[in-house]
Amino acid sequence: MNEDRYRTIGALLGLAAGWGLMVGLGFSGMVPAAVLGAGGCVAGAIAAERFYAWNQRGNQ
Known about the structure:
- The chain contains two helices and no strands.
- Helix 1 packs antiparallel against helix 2.
- It has one domain (3-58).
- It has helices spanning 3-25, 30-58.
- By secondary structure, it is mainly α.
């Protein structure tokens, strides 16, 4: 898999985590969904990029 695939998967997992956090905290509405969803996507993509880089260093 390439870095873009890792980033996409990380963003989707981050979106799900943001949604789960929103529901778990009892928030509802457009603003919390946008903030937690976007934050989850960005955090998930960054974490996936770091994991990809770490994985590539380990394979060399």
